[in-house]
Amino acid sequence: MGAIVTHFRQNEVTDDDILHLAVRLADSGEKILFDKSIELCDIPSTGGPGSLSTILCPLFLLNLGKSVLKLGVPGRPAGGIDVLAQIEDYNIEPDSSKIHMWLEENNYVHFLANNNFTPLDALLFNFRKKNNGVSIPSLAIASLLSKKIAVGLSHIGLDVRVSEHGNFGHTLELAKSNAKRFNRIANLAGIKAKSFITDGRVAQQPYIGRGEALLAVSHLLDDTADDLLQSHAEVCNQMACSVNGTITVPFSVKLLSHAFFANVETQGGKKDSFEDIVFNIKKGHQYYISAKKNGYFNIDLLAIRDAIVGIQQKADGRFPDPCGLVLKAKNDSYVQKGDIICSFRCIESHLHEFRANLERAVSYLAEPIDNIKFEEIV
């Protein structure tokens, strides 16, 4: 593992080198084979807090009549698979026979990279996390593609979240260049690919945390989403429509709700558990942070990620959910001293630590920063 990371960090690698590694990672475990006539789609991301695209985009693809097979890894602090794993009995590690059966039943299966599927990629990703190798773009491309090759995808859209800590480069220019490279290599692998530039420096929606992600889904499906969450959902819908090769069409909340709960129940999860989690997350948000002074609100998402992950790592369970926050102010909105900028929850043993870290992550600027605009890269 160390030799791979060192080589990709220190040397110029070709598209063929990256594809070769992606194929080797895919071949390290079982592969899912479907009839070539079935077009399997997915919209993964390059990682980063503040977005729900890996949870919402499959629902929008289903809304367009597509089939989705999503093989993923846990997020930091919350990714699609570890968020869904919060739901009681939701099976994130099905065998291949269940995957085939579930896809035929429901057109959507979301499962975990493990010892059966892309095990070498999972080992490499864990090594990258421990050795400052997550943000090496060439390795990120190989890792993302390995999971898509392993499940036989025909179409892919990639949410490239651009930030200083982004996996596709620290600048917009680098992120665009690596997005184009991802598309090229995916095409070499026989997968039709597009990438989408989104701003990873700012929260694309207000709900940050594993339970908070489910709360956001609940608001969206109940048609009670606030403006920022609604706007984020529309961007996810736009990405899905682009992957589908159609113009952007309005989405149906009723169909999204059906798609979400059909997947939960197909994979063994309980709707009552989802509702209990949402209730308890709402109940847990009894703490608030207020603006310390006037200015344009800015929150450091890397600091937020580290604050949540730091407490998750001290908690029990495979995918623990000890804390989370909901933003009450939008990035770059003007706030006045005393305005509530977020609510949060946290287990008692780390409450003061979490509050202090959240407060340190917030700044108040004299001028708003320029947002990175959504852009499609082909």
Structure keywords:
alpha/beta, Aldehyde Oxidoreductase, domain 3, globular, 14 helices, 2 domains, 378 residues, glycosyltransferase, Thymidine phosphorylase, single chain, six-stranded mixed sheet, Pyrimidine Nucleoside Phosphorylase, Chain A, domain 2
Query: What is the CATH class designation of the largest domain?
Result: Alpha Beta
Q: Give the CA-CA distance, first to last residue.
A: 32 Å
Number of helices: 14
Shape: globular
Largest sheet: 6 strands, mixed
User: Helical residue percent?
Assistant: 40-55%
CATH superfamily of the largest domain: Nucleoside phosphorylase/phosphoribosyltransferase catalytic domain
Q: From the alpha carbons, calculate the radius of gyration and give it in angstroms.
A: 20 Å
Whole-number count of domains: 2
Return the structural class. Answer: alpha/beta
For the secondary structure, the number of strands is 13
Following the backbone from N to C, one meets helices and strands in this order, namely HHEHEHHEHHEHEEHHHHEEHEEEHEE
The side-by-side strand order for the widest beta sheet comes to 3-2-1-4-5-13
Would you identify the regions where 5 or more consecutive residues have pLDDT less than 50? none
Strand content: 15-25%
Mean pLDDT score: 94
Oligomer: single chain
CATH architecture call of the largest domain: 3-Layer(aba) Sandwich
Give the CATH topology of the largest domain: Pyrimidine Nucleoside Phosphorylase, Chain A, domain 2
InterPro entries: Nuc_phospho_transferase, Thymidine/pyrmidine_PPase
Protein name: Thymidine phosphorylase
Keywords: Glycosyltransferase, Transferase
